[in-house]
Design a protein that fits this description.
By secondary structure, the protein is of the alpha+beta class. The chain has 2 domains: 122 residues, Immunoglobulins (Immunoglobulin-like, Sandwich), CATH 2.60.40.10; 59 residues, Type 1 dockerin domain, CATH 1.10.1330.10. Helices cover 19% and strands 33% of the residues. The protein has a 5-stranded mixed beta sheet, with no helix packed on it. A 3-stranded antiparallel beta sheet has the order 1-3-6, with no helix packed on it. Strand 4 and strand 5 form a beta hairpin.
Length: 209
């Protein structure tokens, strides 16, 4: 004797089948769609980057957005629970000043004028679980010019009492960092303080507001 399926059981079977089909068709895909870096010429401590990311998949996604300068990692920020087909813009002010020894050519550095180097800024969105298309996770913006004078010890674009105080605090220290040992003699002496004092009051770059 043939049994007939009850309407309730039939509905449950259809629902399970639909859910299974939906789960199998989930797409995980996050992308960096736009990057703006400004100003074109700036201090190491004042690199501004605006990043737009988009969830091009079908599920909510959580991931990190990371700013790189050449092969250096500058900063990162999380994006949490970004819904499908929505985008989000993040605004960064990157401080590359701690990386000045890596960004600029090896010493000896010129003492009579600032240096300018070009740095490539690129942005990466972390790969989410199940993501296949990762080509759009990376966006290379191009180059930004970084200006720095080695006598500017706090990276604010001017030579003032703050720089003298930083140097004076390390007076007599053996094996100082590269940016303090201006005459390359292995210590901080009155000569370094005199070099900064000679340029006292000079403003070589004014960051935009």
């Amino acid at each position: 004797m043939q049994r007939e399926c009850s309407p309730v059981l039939l509905l449950l079977i259809l629902l399970v089948a639909r859910l299974g089909s939906s789960a199998g068709s989930e797409v995980h895909d996050v992308a960096v769609t736009h990057v703006t870096v400004w100003p074109n010429l700036t201090l190491p401590s004042y690199v501004r980057v605006n990043v737009t990311v988009e969830n091009q998949g079908t599920s909510y996604e959580t991931f990190n957005v990371t700013i790189h300068a050449d092969n250096l990692t500058a900063t990162s920020a999380p994006v949490a629970d970004l819904a499908s087909e929505l985008n989000k813009t993040l605004k960064f002010t990157c401080d590359l000043f701690p990386f000045r020894a890596e960004i600029f050519p090896p010493p000896p550095w010129p003492l009579d004028a600032p240096m300018i180097v070009n740095v490539t800024i690129w942005v990466g969105a972390g790969v989410v679980a199940g993501e296949v298309n990762t080509a759009n996770n990376v966006h290379v913006d191009g180059t930004v010019s970084i200006i720095w004078w080695v006598l500017d010890l706090n990276g604010d674009g001017r030579i003032n009492i703050v720089d003298i105080a930083i140097m004076a605090k390390s007076f007599g220290a053996p094996h100082p960092p590269l940016w303090l040992d201006l005459d390359r003699d292995g210590t901080v002496s009155i000569l370094e303080i005199a070099m900064i004092a000679k340029a006292f009051g000079q403003v070589y770059f004014e960051p935009p507001i």
